[in-house]
Amino acid sequence: MSKYGVMVMGPAGAGKSTFCASLITHLQLNRRSAFYVNLDPAAETFEHTPDLDIKDLISLEDVMEEMKLGPNGGLIYCFEFLMENLDWLTEGLDSLTEEYLIVIDMPGQIELYTHIPILPRLVRFLTQPGALDVRLCAAYLLESTFIIDRAKYFAGSLSAMSAMIMLEVPHINILSKMDLVKGQIKKKELKRFITPDTSLLEDDPANPKKRADVDMEAAYSAEPMNKDAMMSGASFQRLNTAVAGLLENFSMVSFLKLDCTDEDSVGAILSYIDDCIQYHEAQEPREMVDEEADMEE
Ligand SMILES: Nc1nc2c(ncn2[C@@H]2O[C@H](COP(=O)(O)OP(=O)(O)OP(=O)(O)O)[C@@H](O)[C@H]2O)c(=O)[nH]1
Ligand SMILES: [Mg+2]
Known about the structure:
Blueprint (H helix, E strand, L loop, with lengths): L2 E7 L6 H14 L4 E5 L13 E2 L6 H8 L3 H14 L2 H7 L7 E5 L5 H4 L3 H10 L6 E10 L6 H18 L3 E6 L2 H4 L4 H5 L7 H4 L13 H4 L7 H4 L3 H17 L4 E3 L5 H15 L8 H11 L1
Helix pairs in contact: 1-14, 2-3, 7-13
The structure holds guanosine-5'-triphosphate and magnesium ion (MG).
The site of guanosine-5'-triphosphate has 16 residues, from α1 and α8.
């Protein structure tokens, strides 16, 4: 019997835990079963108490103190420890039926999603047929305020693509906190950020080529004079163009929009997740389940 789940990932502060909480509330309101797994050993407060919490296995505080590690090294240590104690996950998840949506809240350290091979191993373990066999969807959150700074938006999109390629499970990318940009940017303009491509750099306000008030000779001259100039200099623009071109060529990243304060928005994302993992195909018709329960009584 398969299980169904979503792994919520993304950089620090992207809104992962808030999304997990809104998703669980939405599932509960719709009479669906959720199982909340917290894999962030640094998380302290929760809107919904986790059903399974990595802190019961290992504490980041203890690791930092005993191993003399900083928060990032400590987190990697915690994940390595988790990988050596996967029975803990098996025991926690084994009895779940296909009715449940397992919601996994991940930490925000970007190292986890880029160059350390722990996550692919964890995902392979969770999805392994014949074992836990979780049909897993990865949801990668990026904060929508990033779109104001094109360079940040492309860097974030690149990390989303890197996670996508690394994990090899159905994947959705989400621009979170849409309520923060809705009033500030026109709808038509917002639409352009659904799929990252090089055209977004053509009218980048930070691109000196596009700014009449910038002395072009100076902007493209050899050495930047200060940090701001460095972030808008010619080599930086070339780098951004290359990154944007890469994203366009791969044509893998596109974003769904999420506003956690809006129930419909959370519901729409849940529909995408359900489709990705074919959740509904595995469910018995609800009426039949209810009837059977009535007959047994
Ligand atoms: N306006 C608005 N704020 C949000 C939204 N989602 C999250 N936030 C805020 O963003 C901040 C970070 O949210 P979290 O959910 O803790 O983010 P996270 O990705 O879990 O953070 P880490 O676990 O530390 O990486 C909090 O102050 C939230 O209240 C949203 O949809 N709209
Ligand atoms: Mg969090």
